[in-house]
Amino acid sequence: MRHLKITAALALLSALALPAGITRAADSNPVQPAWSASWTASPQPVWEAGFALSTNIPASLSNQTIRQIARISLGGKRARVVLSNEYGTTPLTVGAAHIALTALAGSGSDILAGTDRVLTFGGRDVVTIAPGASAFSDPVDLELAPLAQVAVSIFLPQATPLTTFHWDGKQTAYIGPGNLAAAPLIKASQTLEARLFLSAILVEAAPAARVVAAFGDSITDGAGSTPDRNQRWPDQLAQRLVKQNVAVINAGISGARVLSDKMGVNALARFERDVLNQPGLDSVILLMGINDIGWPGSSFTPQDPALAAQRLIDGYRQLIARARLHHVRIVGATLTPFEGALQDTALKGYYSASKEQTRQAVNHWIRSSGEFDAVIDFDAVLRDPKHRRRFLPAFDSGDHLHPGDRGYRAMADAIDLATLLGSR
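That's the Lipolytic enzyme, G-D-S-L sequence above. Prediction below.
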């Protein structure tokens, strides 16, 4: 009898704990799909006229469609697309958005017959994205093989300022008049290499899938690599890891710095958005800091004072601490050689002997401090053994700052996968 009274009392308390008209959800919820980031392009704001580099994009588009090509890393049976209005000051209206498979790399704007899918947002074909916000599409059934190449087409029905972009896309995007989101191909009236509003592609991945983020600057973004050929070191690392059920996403921004803004906000400000908040994240490779060292006194920021190595190290420590709070493995990469960087261009003053001393001090700390979970010595991979402050000529894109395709391949091949992924 006492047991029955206790049971009845517990049932009464349970009922009283909920407001009238609200019922409890079933205890056995269905297992939710595991979404993983498979491709990303970190959003940037456009910069003002007069900066050393042009944005190379129009100020706005109106009643036009842009088709953007991306090679994912992990595949899956369903996909979602993320559009960003991060730096918009007005709402962004997308009148239609589609995703489809494409032919092989470098084949233009053609999509494969039978693969075109309409993207919806909350069940609607049209989405308006508030300033500073992103929009995740509904899941769409589309069989995506690992390393598949997809086209995301976005129709912009009204005058749309291009305030959120990714400058160094290294992939041709195609712009045509009117709503061409479902067109088999776009006979482009204009092409770009930048990304516009497209920030991520997610896949419903196989169980236990993991994501590695490459967090860096132009050397991660792929400056100096061949456009439309996916030759950046994160692309080539993705090829090595795909059979291990590991995605590689590129969170590089050309011109990025750890401590300061300009071509994108500083690393400390964007770490959560571009890296730690990506679904499925397991590890991050940090290769950033050469612009913090090289920009002061150069054509980029001629009035800025020289950077002390300790300031950069302090920035790394902040990133390490935040990765650990998220239970994310963080791997430090040494800064690559840069003697003679940009000397044959209009961008003067990037390299000096004192800046080289700062790079060496930072690299010494990366190698010896033990504060990262692991270290990748990209400096040792790329430098000329006979002239250690310079690239090996075979790996140099020609500007003495960025590797070429062979250099990026050497970087990807030099990464020990067991060290990168640890024991998890």
